[in-house]
Amino acid sequence: MDASLVLIIVMAVLFACGVYAMLERSLTRVLIGFLLLGNAANLLLLIVMGRPGLAAFYGDGGPGEMSDPLPQALTLTAIVITFAVSAFLLALIYRSWQLGEADTVEDDAEDIAVRSRGVEDEDTMDDESENDSDDATTDFVGMETSPITIIGSREFSGLRDDAPTDRPADRPEGGAR
């Protein structure tokens, strides 16, 4: 077997095991699956890189002898992303263990209700959405209270407004600035 064929098979096995582990309900297995996927992605980038060559700043070799730096940069980026997401998942696992002494993700009542809803219920929901008028207004039209209040320097004497504006500044009576 060729060395690259072995790497391709190992990469495929890592991807398959990573996806399988991520489909579990245990957060620890999700973390292990994500780590397997990260290593498989790094191996994919190593395979794509091809034959190792000289660094661009080393020697007087031609372009065919140089190594492509892009897969190396992508591998470094993939390592950093895998580390960050792994740290986040470890924090989730730790917090889940603190709260419930288990790291499994359970279904909540809303998920069960959506799963048990039949096709007829979804059809009636579609019919209700078609009856909505297109010229619906927001809740705040015509009301004295609005979610946004614009405060200017004229409303409060202690507020100093130095922001640049597009309107010309008020000039003194003499005309000089």
Offer a concise description of the structure:
The chain is mostly helical.
Core attributes:
177 residues; mainly alpha; Helix Hairpins; 54% helix
Q: Which structural class best describes the helix and strand composition?
A: mainly alpha
Could you estimate the helical fraction of the residues in percent? 40-55%
* Percent strand: under 5%
The total count of strands amounts to 0
Uncertain segments: none
Order of helices and strands: HHHHH
End-to-end gap: 84 Å
Q: According to CATH, what is the class of the domain at 3-109? A: Mainly Alpha
How is the CATH topology of the domain at 3-109 named? Helix Hairpins
Average of per-residue pLDDT values: 77
Rough shape?
flat
Radius of gyration: 30 Å
